[in-house]
Write a sequence for this structure.
């Protein structure tokens, strides 16, 4: 393990590839149907799994009878918690956090069910159709225990307990404090506040979760192909649970069809498929159908925040306090715990602002719903929604323009590094630069004139701003999830030139759309001195590096990229040493570029292929001690991590008849440090904003009081389609960070800024009617109701 | 009771006996014929990932039974172009970064082909409308629209 201290002083001498919009390596296979997703694996005569899922929100399992199902055509086995109880150890999502209860993760519900959709039994048959047929033949007797459907009710003293052993439904509680909030609020000239809510949301990757476990008799070994973004973590957890050492358990994330967090935790089905493969000595496949995927993959948000902010007479925010209640669902997830999403809300609430005093408290409460887990932005879509609404409310009360109030409160260049109340440190980032650049790109002043004109014609036009900061590329000093014991602070690169001269760069990170095979190859090509097209990147395979975790928390460009740079440099030194023998030149006079070592100022050169031949295949060309294996491994740890920031500006118009919100303009100015591939960065921003638009306007998982999901199909759970998403203008502020390469992470940002910017724009559009926005999504139905209420209220006033 | 299904897929003729009447066309293509380029994202006709051309028209293969396709000419993403020779639309998707995870991509390409053949696609709004039955969670659609716009322009140039 090593860190930045050993970085070379000038990391990139002449970048040729980093910074260029190089076309993606992945595209050729993905465009021609040659990609391979987990469901595309074709092991020899695989068996297929279908899960019987609970229709009960909370009930004791009194009896399960599988006899008829067992005898059904094509059925090979039916498993229940009882029949596999000796085959695994439960996985515990441990954390050192105080006031936290870790609910164990079991492959199948044991003793009782805690949400609708929880797997109760698994049928294994020769085809998926036959497995699904047999599900109906399993009999389960339940004794209902009453649904816990709302977090606010589940905290009541007399509420039934979902996990009796925990002694409470509050699975996690935490508080952050800085300064004298009560005193500062007391002294504030303006106090604004409210109750803010973001409803439950599905990450909804287009590829449903899918697993193929391939059993190899000869070695009694399993390879799990999983649609996961954390194959390394999954390998380690299953290895521990099943007592299967890493050399007999390989976990591969092949092509993965998006995750956004929903494929970023260990799932019960991943345990079950490996248990079944081992028990039966067969290869198995499972792919969730859409209903299963929506109702059993980890979900997002589901938080209510009561918050208040105080300002002084100059419009400077002096104080902020918030009480968060998160509806975390039925279980804590592995490895992130149920604290991940709600605790991040209070960790990040002060955002990019210099706020004197702060108190943020949070409770994560168990309910009869699928667990919440990581979702693009984690905690920050909610914290940004709240902080940015408060900023706008403050601006209104102070008579300031929303742009001005932000300018007065953002952390200024001279204040970096700036530590916020939760201990997060912002390194130097372009907070103000993003604000100014967004305003300029949006033509903000012109927009305000346009708005005034539209208002004169009775049109509902609004402009919304959102600024935020996020911590990316987190090193070992901070655990990605609070108190979590696994190492999320480092990543390994292993670069090899083999005896044919081919270059292979292996990583533990795992791409699911980000294009890491391209961006990491760009870095390796520059720092090794190779041609881009000659570098093959392998990622997402637990056999390639000794330890890895995966891709999450906007870390792969920073950690994978940093490891790539260091390993490339080490390998380049080896190449220079070997070629100094071959070219009979001083090592310092050799330059490596374009796959060749060249003696500076001459035409004497050797190719990587010739070097490889000399090292590996010729016995006479090199002295024995000069035949160094052409490989380098480096594990990079950025220690702290680095800040990424952005400002979003949205202009919307609301149709008073249909209450539909149309987005007229959308601008993002973002700082992700040195850009590796501008085309890919823009794509990440576009996609992130589209998801944020979904969160702001459409997407909501509706659970009724019996814990039944009412919006499980894509007809009821509406995600944005092409006509609903506007063109997004992206402006880059490229301020280099202090980590290797100057990169910052940026995969999540779009989803953090968009809900807040759109919420502010809607509130601005509706301000003539004196309507505030405090819940998302703002569906036409919600807007209609708010407008109705406002009308009644103003009529009431007129009657007085 | 099983049936025999004879189809031509991407120019190759297949005669498959023992096809269950309830087998979906999407499963037939993926499991029986091993053509896994066609993806299944919802199995209820909303996401468009499973779109294929049946006798020249775009069809959701998760909403059609394999037996209904008997005698048909089918084109899937595997029939468009190869990594060495991408077809025009595939090349524009690559050029404009019209894909990230690639899961929606086969359906987007087939729908795009269908739109390009049938409509002038003069405006971006028209393209977006044409794509409204295909969901993508990664790209925010902007670069998909750009890719189709550029392919439409190239086709218009050729025919003028
Ligand atoms: S899989 Fe056919 S439309 Fe979604
Ligand atoms: S590229 Fe991932 S769903 Fe479209």
């Amino acid at each position: 393990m090593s860190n930045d201290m050993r970085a070379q002083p000038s990391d990139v001498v002449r970048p040729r590839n980093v910074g260029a919009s190089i076309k993606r390596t992945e595209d050729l296979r993905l465009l021609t149907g040659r990609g391979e997703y987990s469901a595309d694996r074709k092991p020899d005569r695989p068996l297929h799994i279908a899960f019987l899922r609970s229709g009960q929100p909370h009930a004791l399992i009194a009896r399960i009878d599988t006899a008829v199902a067992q005898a059904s055509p094509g059925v090979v086995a039916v498993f229940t918690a009882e029949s596999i109880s000796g085959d695994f150890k439960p996985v515990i999502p441990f954390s050192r956090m105080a006031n936290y209860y870790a609910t164990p993760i079991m492959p199948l519900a044991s003793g009782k069910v805690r949400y609708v959709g929880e797997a109760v039994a698994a049928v294994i048959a020769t085809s998926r159709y036959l497995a699904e047929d047999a599900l109906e033949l399993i009999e389960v007797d339940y004794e209902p225990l009453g649904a816990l459907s709302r977090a606010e009710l589940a905290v009541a003293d007399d509420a039934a307990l979902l996990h009796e052993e925990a002694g409470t439904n509050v699975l996690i509680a935490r508080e952050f404090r800085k300064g004298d909030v009560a005193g500062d609020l007391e002294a504030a000239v303006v106090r604004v506040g409210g109750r803010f809510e973001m409803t439950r949301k599905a990450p909804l990757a287009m590829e449903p979760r899918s697993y193929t476990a391939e059993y190899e008799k000869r070695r009694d070994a399993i390879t799990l192909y999983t649609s996961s973004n954390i194959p390394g973590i999954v390998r380690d957890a299953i290895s521990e649970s099943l007592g299967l050492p890493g050399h007999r358990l390989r976990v591969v994330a092949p092509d993965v069809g998006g995750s956004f967090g929903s494929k970023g935790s260990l799932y019960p089905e991943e345990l079950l498929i490996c248990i079944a493969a081992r028990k039966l000595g067969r290869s198995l496949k499972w792919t969730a159908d859409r209903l299963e995927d929506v109702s059993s993959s980890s979900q997002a948000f589901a938080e209510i925040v009561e918050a208040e902010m105080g300002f002084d007479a100059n419009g400077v925010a002096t104080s902020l306090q918030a009480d968060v209640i998160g509806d975390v669902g039925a279980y804590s997830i592995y490895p992130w715990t149920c604290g991940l999403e709600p605790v991040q809300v209070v960790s990040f609430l002060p955002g990019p602002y210099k706020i004197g005093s702060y108190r943020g408290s949070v409770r994560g409460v168990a309910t009869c719903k699928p667990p919440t887990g990581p979702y693009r932005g984690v905690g920050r879509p909610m914290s940004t929604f709240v902080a940015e609404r408060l900023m706008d409310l403050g601006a209104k009360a102070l008579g300031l323009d929303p742009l001005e109030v932000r300018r007065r409160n953002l952390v200024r260049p001279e204040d970096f590094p700036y530590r916020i109340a939760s201990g997060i440190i912002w390194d130097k980032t372009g907070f103000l630069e993003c604000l100014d650049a967004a305003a300029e790109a949006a033509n903000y002043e012109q927009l305000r004139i346009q708005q005034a004109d539209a208002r004169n014609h009775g049109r509902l036009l609004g402009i919304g701003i959102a600024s935020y900061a996020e911590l990316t590329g987190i090193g070992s000093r901070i655990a990605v999830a609070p108190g979590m014991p696994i190492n999320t602070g480092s990543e390994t690169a292993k670069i090899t030139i083999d005896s044919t001269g081919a270059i292979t760069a292996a990583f533990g990170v795992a791409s699911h759309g980000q294009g890491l095979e391209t961006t990491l190859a760009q870095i390796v090509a520059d720092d090794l001195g190779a041609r881009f097209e000659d570098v093959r990147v392998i990622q997402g395979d637990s056999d390639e590096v000794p330890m890895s975790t995966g891709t999450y928390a906007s870390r792969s460009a920073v950690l994978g990229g940093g490891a790539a740079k260091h390993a490339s440099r080490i390998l380049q030194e080896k190449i220079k040493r070997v070629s100094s023998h071959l070219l009979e030149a001083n090592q310092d006079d050799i330059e490596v570029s374009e796959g060749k070592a060249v003696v500076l100022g001459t035409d004497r050169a050797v190719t990587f292929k010739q070097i490889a031949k000399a090292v590996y295949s010729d016995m006479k060309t090199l002295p024995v001690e000069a035949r160094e294996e052409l490989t380098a491994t480096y594990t990079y740890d950025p220690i702290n991590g680095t800040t990424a920031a952005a400002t979003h500006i949205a202009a919307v118009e609301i149709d008073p008849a249909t209450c539909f919100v149309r987005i007229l303009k959308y601008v993002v100015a973002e700082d992700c440090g040195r850009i590796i591939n501008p085309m890919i960065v823009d794509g990440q921003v576009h996609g992130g904003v589209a998801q944020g638009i979904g969160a702001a306007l459409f997407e909501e998982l509706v659970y009724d009081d019996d814990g039944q999901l009412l919006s499980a199909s894509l007809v009821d759970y509406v995600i944005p389609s092409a006509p609903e998403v506007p063109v997004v203008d992206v402006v880059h502020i490229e301020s280099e960070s202090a980590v290797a390469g100057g990169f910052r992470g940026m995969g999540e940002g779009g989803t953090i800024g968009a809900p807040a910017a759109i919420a502010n724009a809607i509130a601005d559009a509706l301000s003539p009617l004196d309507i505030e926005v405090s819940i998302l999504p703002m569906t036409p139905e919600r807007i209609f109701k708010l407008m109705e209420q406002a009308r009644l209220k103003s009529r009431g006033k007129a009657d007085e | 009771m099983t049936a025999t299904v004879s189809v031509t897929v991407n120019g190759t003729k297949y005669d498959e006996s023992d096809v269950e009447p309830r087998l979906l066309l999407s499963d037939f293509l993926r499991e029986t014929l091993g053509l896994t380029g066609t993806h299944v994202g919802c199995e209820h006709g909303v996401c468009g990932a499973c779109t294929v051309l049946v006798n020249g028209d775009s069809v959701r293969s998760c909403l059609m039974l394999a037996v209904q396709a008997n005698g048909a000419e089918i084109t899937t993403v595997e029939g468009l172009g190869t990594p060495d020779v991408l077809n025009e639309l595939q090349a524009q998707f690559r050029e404009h970064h019209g894909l990230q995870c690639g899961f929606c991509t086969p359906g987007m390409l087939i729908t795009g082909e269908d739109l390009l053949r049938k409509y002038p696609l003069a405006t971006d709004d028209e393209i977006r409308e044409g794509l409204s039955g295909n969901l993508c969670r990664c790209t925010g659609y902007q670069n998909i629209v750009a890719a189709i716009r550029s392919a439409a322009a190239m086709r218009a140039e050729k025919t003028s």
In short: The domain at 88-159 of chain B is CATH 1.10.150.120 (DNA polymerase; domain 1). Chain B touches chain A through 60 residues (CB under 8 Å). Chain B has two domains: 3-79, 88-159.
